[in-house]
Amino acid sequence: MIKKLFAFAVLIACTGAAFASSRQDLQDRIDAAKKVLDEIMNAQDNSIPYNILQQATCVGVVPSMIKGAFIFGGQYGQGVVTCRTGHGWSAPVFIRMAGGSWGLQIGGQATDLVLVAVNDNGFQDLLKSKFKIGADASAAAGPVGRSGEAATNATLSSELLTYSRTRGLFAGINLDGTSVSQNRSDTDTYYGASYGFETILRGNVAVPEGAIPFVRSVAHYFVEAKTR
Questions:
Q1: Which residue among 23, 93, 105, 120 has the highest number of C-beta atoms inside a 10 angstrom radius?
Q2: Torsion, Cα of 94, 174, 14, 205 (10° steps)
Q3: Considering the domain boundaries, does residue 200 fall inside one?
Protein backbone atom coordinates (compact mmCIF):
# COMPACT_ATOMS: atom_id res chain seq x y z
CA MET A 1 0.00 0.00 0.00
CA ILE A 2 2.82 2.41 0.90
CA LYS A 3 4.58 1.75 -2.41
CA LYS A 4 1.33 2.36 -4.28
CA LEU A 5 0.77 5.63 -2.43
CA PHE A 6 4.32 6.69 -3.22
CA ALA A 7 3.92 5.90 -6.91
CA PHE A 8 0.58 7.72 -6.99
CA ALA A 9 2.03 10.81 -5.29
CA VAL A 10 4.95 10.98 -7.73
CA LEU A 11 2.55 10.50 -10.65
CA ILE A 12 0.35 13.36 -9.44
CA ALA A 13 3.37 15.62 -8.94
CA CYS A 14 4.73 14.87 -12.40
CA THR A 15 1.35 15.15 -14.07
CA GLY A 16 0.72 18.53 -12.48
CA ALA A 17 4.14 19.77 -13.57
CA ALA A 18 3.64 18.47 -17.08
CA PHE A 19 0.48 20.42 -17.94
CA ALA A 20 0.70 22.28 -21.26
CA SER A 21 3.01 25.28 -21.15
CA SER A 22 2.39 28.53 -22.99
CA ARG A 23 5.05 29.92 -25.28
CA GLN A 24 5.75 32.61 -22.68
CA ASP A 25 6.27 29.92 -20.05
CA LEU A 26 8.82 28.31 -22.35
CA GLN A 27 10.54 31.61 -23.05
CA ASP A 28 10.79 32.20 -19.30
CA ARG A 29 12.37 28.75 -18.93
CA ILE A 30 15.00 29.54 -21.57
CA ASP A 31 15.72 32.91 -19.96
CA ALA A 32 16.10 31.21 -16.56
CA ALA A 33 18.49 28.66 -18.08
CA LYS A 34 20.66 31.47 -19.45
CA LYS A 35 20.71 33.19 -16.06
CA VAL A 36 21.73 29.97 -14.28
CA LEU A 37 24.50 29.29 -16.77
CA ASP A 38 25.82 32.86 -16.61
CA GLU A 39 25.92 32.82 -12.82
CA ILE A 40 27.70 29.46 -12.69
CA MET A 41 30.24 30.29 -15.36
CA ASN A 42 31.04 33.65 -13.75
CA ALA A 43 31.98 31.92 -10.51
CA GLN A 44 35.64 32.07 -11.62
CA ASP A 45 37.56 29.09 -10.19
CA ASN A 46 34.42 27.43 -8.83
CA SER A 47 33.02 26.46 -12.20
CA ILE A 48 33.28 23.84 -14.96
CA PRO A 49 36.90 23.00 -15.94
CA TYR A 50 38.14 24.35 -19.27
CA ASN A 51 39.04 20.93 -20.67
CA ILE A 52 35.45 19.78 -20.17
CA LEU A 53 34.12 22.92 -21.84
CA GLN A 54 36.44 22.27 -24.78
CA GLN A 55 35.09 18.83 -25.59
CA ALA A 56 31.43 19.26 -24.65
CA THR A 57 29.03 18.06 -27.34
CA CYS A 58 25.81 19.15 -25.61
CA VAL A 59 24.79 21.26 -22.63
CA GLY A 60 21.54 20.96 -20.69
CA VAL A 61 20.33 23.37 -18.01
CA VAL A 62 17.40 22.63 -15.68
CA PRO A 63 16.55 25.70 -13.58
CA SER A 64 14.99 25.02 -10.18
CA MET A 65 14.48 21.27 -10.18
CA ILE A 66 12.10 20.68 -7.29
CA LYS A 67 13.02 18.09 -4.68
CA GLY A 68 10.59 17.41 -1.86
CA ALA A 69 9.96 14.75 0.73
CA PHE A 70 7.58 13.75 3.49
CA ILE A 71 8.41 10.11 4.30
CA PHE A 72 8.81 9.50 0.55
CA GLY A 73 10.66 11.79 -1.85
CA GLY A 74 10.53 12.87 -5.45
CA GLN A 75 12.10 15.33 -7.81
CA TYR A 76 10.95 16.94 -11.02
CA GLY A 77 12.29 19.62 -13.31
CA GLN A 78 12.17 20.95 -16.83
CA GLY A 79 14.95 22.50 -18.84
CA VAL A 80 16.59 23.02 -22.21
CA VAL A 81 19.42 21.44 -24.20
CA THR A 82 21.63 22.73 -27.01
CA CYS A 83 24.32 20.79 -28.89
CA ARG A 84 27.48 21.68 -30.78
CA THR A 85 27.14 21.50 -34.57
CA GLY A 86 29.47 22.08 -37.49
CA HIS A 87 28.38 25.72 -37.60
CA GLY A 88 27.93 26.67 -33.97
CA TRP A 89 25.44 25.60 -31.29
CA SER A 90 21.97 24.33 -32.10
CA ALA A 91 18.59 25.78 -31.31
CA PRO A 92 17.38 24.45 -27.94
CA VAL A 93 14.99 21.60 -27.23
CA PHE A 94 13.01 21.01 -24.04
CA ILE A 95 13.54 18.10 -21.63
CA ARG A 96 12.04 16.75 -18.41
CA MET A 97 13.93 15.16 -15.54
CA ALA A 98 12.25 13.09 -12.83
CA GLY A 99 13.17 10.68 -10.10
CA GLY A 100 12.11 9.36 -6.72
CA SER A 101 13.63 8.32 -3.44
CA TRP A 102 12.48 6.43 -0.36
CA GLY A 103 13.36 6.88 3.26
CA LEU A 104 12.52 8.73 6.44
CA GLN A 105 12.93 12.26 5.17
CA ILE A 106 11.15 15.57 5.29
CA GLY A 107 11.78 18.91 3.63
CA GLY A 108 12.16 20.36 0.17
CA GLN A 109 14.48 22.44 -1.95
CA ALA A 110 14.99 23.76 -5.46
CA THR A 111 18.20 22.86 -7.27
CA ASP A 112 19.67 24.08 -10.55
CA LEU A 113 21.09 21.26 -12.65
CA VAL A 114 23.59 21.28 -15.50
CA LEU A 115 24.24 18.27 -17.74
CA VAL A 116 27.29 18.20 -20.00
CA ALA A 117 27.62 15.53 -22.69
CA VAL A 118 31.34 15.07 -23.29
CA ASN A 119 31.33 12.70 -26.26
CA ASP A 120 29.13 11.53 -29.10
CA ASN A 121 27.56 8.82 -26.94
CA GLY A 122 26.23 11.52 -24.64
CA PHE A 123 24.79 13.31 -27.65
CA GLN A 124 23.12 10.10 -28.80
CA ASP A 125 21.57 9.67 -25.34
CA LEU A 126 19.80 13.01 -25.73
CA LEU A 127 18.28 11.83 -29.00
CA LYS A 128 16.46 9.02 -27.18
CA SER A 129 12.86 9.69 -26.19
CA LYS A 130 13.75 8.69 -22.62
CA PHE A 131 16.74 7.29 -20.74
CA LYS A 132 17.80 6.74 -17.15
CA ILE A 133 21.05 8.18 -15.86
CA GLY A 134 23.35 5.47 -14.56
CA ALA A 135 21.42 2.66 -16.23
CA ASP A 136 20.97 3.63 -19.88
CA ALA A 137 23.64 6.34 -19.88
CA SER A 138 26.90 6.34 -17.96
CA ALA A 139 27.31 9.48 -15.88
CA ALA A 140 29.62 10.92 -13.26
CA ALA A 141 29.52 13.83 -10.87
CA GLY A 142 31.37 16.54 -12.76
CA PRO A 143 34.57 18.00 -11.34
CA VAL A 144 34.65 21.68 -10.39
CA GLY A 145 37.53 24.10 -10.92
CA ARG A 146 38.82 25.91 -14.00
CA SER A 147 42.07 23.91 -13.98
CA GLY A 148 42.10 21.21 -16.64
CA GLU A 149 43.59 18.82 -14.10
CA ALA A 150 40.26 18.79 -12.28
CA ALA A 151 38.85 16.28 -14.79
CA THR A 152 40.22 12.76 -14.48
CA ASN A 153 40.32 10.14 -17.23
CA ALA A 154 37.67 8.15 -15.34
CA THR A 155 35.37 11.16 -15.36
CA LEU A 156 35.90 11.86 -19.05
CA SER A 157 35.06 8.25 -19.96
CA SER A 158 31.47 8.91 -18.88
CA GLU A 159 28.85 10.00 -21.38
CA LEU A 160 27.42 12.73 -19.16
CA LEU A 161 28.83 14.90 -16.40
CA THR A 162 26.27 16.17 -13.90
CA TYR A 163 26.32 19.26 -11.71
CA SER A 164 24.01 20.92 -9.20
CA ARG A 165 23.73 24.32 -7.57
CA THR A 166 21.81 24.64 -4.32
CA ARG A 167 21.86 27.79 -2.20
CA GLY A 168 24.74 29.13 -4.28
CA LEU A 169 26.95 26.04 -3.85
CA PHE A 170 28.01 24.53 -7.19
CA ALA A 171 29.29 20.95 -7.23
CA GLY A 172 29.17 17.66 -9.08
CA ILE A 173 26.22 15.46 -8.22
CA ASN A 174 25.28 11.80 -8.59
CA LEU A 175 21.98 11.64 -10.48
CA ASP A 176 21.85 7.86 -10.94
CA GLY A 177 18.26 6.71 -11.32
CA THR A 178 17.01 10.05 -12.60
CA SER A 179 15.15 9.80 -15.90
CA VAL A 180 15.60 12.28 -18.73
CA SER A 181 12.89 12.48 -21.38
CA GLN A 182 12.18 14.60 -24.42
CA ASN A 183 9.44 17.17 -23.92
CA ARG A 184 8.03 17.05 -27.43
CA SER A 185 4.87 19.00 -26.70
CA ASP A 186 6.80 21.97 -25.28
CA THR A 187 9.28 21.86 -28.15
CA ASP A 188 6.45 21.85 -30.70
CA THR A 189 4.74 24.72 -28.88
CA TYR A 190 7.87 26.85 -28.81
CA TYR A 191 8.67 26.32 -32.49
CA GLY A 192 5.09 26.39 -33.69
CA ALA A 193 5.80 23.26 -35.71
CA SER A 194 6.73 19.63 -35.15
CA TYR A 195 10.47 19.08 -35.49
CA GLY A 196 12.31 15.99 -34.31
CA PHE A 197 14.93 16.39 -31.59
CA GLU A 198 17.65 15.16 -33.94
CA THR A 199 16.69 17.70 -36.60
CA ILE A 200 16.96 20.55 -34.10
CA LEU A 201 20.05 19.39 -32.21
CA ARG A 202 21.99 18.76 -35.41
CA GLY A 203 21.51 22.41 -36.30
CA ASN A 204 18.96 22.01 -39.07
CA VAL A 205 16.48 24.44 -37.50
CA ALA A 206 17.20 28.15 -37.09
CA VAL A 207 17.58 29.42 -33.53
CA PRO A 208 14.37 31.29 -32.59
CA GLU A 209 14.91 34.95 -31.73
CA GLY A 210 13.99 34.42 -28.09
CA ALA A 211 16.57 31.64 -27.70
CA ILE A 212 19.49 33.53 -29.26
CA PRO A 213 20.76 34.99 -25.93
CA PHE A 214 20.88 31.52 -24.32
CA VAL A 215 22.63 29.91 -27.30
CA ARG A 216 25.09 32.81 -27.51
CA SER A 217 25.94 32.38 -23.83
CA VAL A 218 26.69 28.70 -24.35
CA ALA A 219 28.77 29.50 -27.43
CA HIS A 220 30.66 32.20 -25.54
CA TYR A 221 31.71 29.99 -22.64
CA PHE A 222 32.38 26.83 -24.60
CA VAL A 223 34.14 28.44 -27.57
CA GLU A 224 36.19 30.67 -25.27
CA ALA A 225 37.54 27.53 -23.63
CA LYS A 226 38.95 26.31 -26.94
CA THR A 227 41.12 29.38 -27.24
CA ARG A 228 42.91 28.73 -23.94
A1: 93
A2: 10
A3: yes
In the chain, what is the straight-line distance between the N-terminal and C-terminal CA atoms, in Å?
57
Nearest to 173 by CA among 212, 136, 219, 139: 139
Residues 201/90, Cβ–Cβ less than 8 Å = yes
Rounded Cα–Cα distance for residues 91 and 206 (Å) = 6
Of 17-21, 86-90, 152-156, 211-215, the least confident: 152-156
Q: List the domain range (segments joined by +) for residue 96.
A: 44-226
Task: Answer for the pair 81, 63: CB distance below 8 angstroms, yes or no.
Answer: no
Residue 17, in any domain of the structure: no
Give the number of residues written for the chain.
228
- Count of beta carbons in the 10 Å neighbourhood of residue 145: 14
Beta-bridge partner residues of 77: 97
Closest to 222 (Cα-Cα) out of 63, 45, 67, 84: 84
In the chain, the number of structural domains is: 1
